[in-house]
Amino acid sequence: MQRFVSAAQVSLATVAAEAGVSVATVSRIVNGETRRASAQTVMRVQAAVVALGYQPNHVGRALRRRQSRVIAMLAPNLDNPAMAAIAVSTEAALRAAGYVMILCDTHDRADLQDEYLQAMRSQLVQGYVLVSAVTSPALSDALARGEPIVFVSRRNPEGGAYVGIDNHAAGAAAADYCLTRAITEPAVIFPAQGSSSTAERVAGFVERLIARGVEADRIRRASAPGLSHLQVGYDAARALVAASAGAWPKGLLCVSDMMAYGAYRLAVERGVAIPETCLLIGIDANPLNAWIAPWLTSVHIPYPDFGAKVVEQLTALWGGTMPDDILLPHSLET
User: Are residues 221 and 287 in the same domain?
Assistant: First the structure.
């Protein structure tokens, strides 16, 4: 029978008195350490916990241990479906492993990233997941302290545990697809504010084309500034066709699906048929493509699988091991 006792009055000592054991024994059992107690003792303590309505003080425990069951994810531009997909996958995997995730939008700004890193450290988070991180002073400090950080989608220039795809190979796959469609002079657009992931995709695309006999000066390239890949895609596509007197390439790699949406907007405005006149290739394979962008060919990134791999990397870091990169398989969807 459950006893009605004010939660404020229930302590470890209250549970210990009810179960007829020491406070230390109760403390060990409620914290999951049951090996030193008999099965009967464990059952008595657990029954007392239920009867009294005892709730462990997780905040106090975190302060004593200087850690919590909270993981901070820092990601840029959460209006990007790719970022949202990574967050959903990671939150589900962390929750299944017994952790709570805090999500912060850095907007791809180093100052905001540092602000969140410092704020999360004060909250005693047990680890960090940095999606498409940028170089920043607080990040360098955190790495120097050996804090557990997993980088996702974009490698950290200073090294660290990583989960993502082989971006260079993804770009090469797009090049191969163009050539199989007899598109021998494809183009590529990308953000002027480069990152390792987009740079690797462009490099893989260009290098594969050259390796297969396409002259480097026949590969048209254009970029545009900005943080919104929708606007960058639109502006970079406009710059690309303007540089060729309005001529569109027969094939165009956009380093993200969002950029492809922007390029498509320009094509619609100019009356250019997609994909008949210009084959657009993106990278992400947003699930919304089947509904809103059936015209888009895209390299599929298995974002739903990222979360479990992030937890795997964090677990290795907590165990004192710097794990190897985890590269998930990609595929091209038409």
Answer: yes
Residue 141, domain extent: 64-165+304-329
Instruction: List the chain residues with pLDDT less than 50.
Output: 1-2, 4, 6-7, 59, 62-63
Residue pLDDT, tens place only, 47-69: 888 888 877 665 455 445 555 78
What is the Cα–Cα distance from 77 to 80, expressed in whole angstroms?
6
Confidence (pTM): 0.79
- Euclidean distance between CA atoms 26 and 33, whole angstroms: 10
The span from the CA of 81 to the CA of 303, in Å, is: 10
Residues 173 and 295 in one domain: yes
The CA distance from 182 to 201, in Å, is 21
CATH code for position 296: 3.40.50.2300
Return left, alpha or beta for 132; rule: phi > 0 is left, psi -120 to 50 is alpha, else beta.
Answer: left
Q: Quick one: 125 and 172 in the same domain?
A: no
**Strand ranges for 61-160 from DSSP E:** 70-75, 100-105, 127-131, 149-152
Q: How many CB atoms lie within 10 A of CB 171?
A: 28
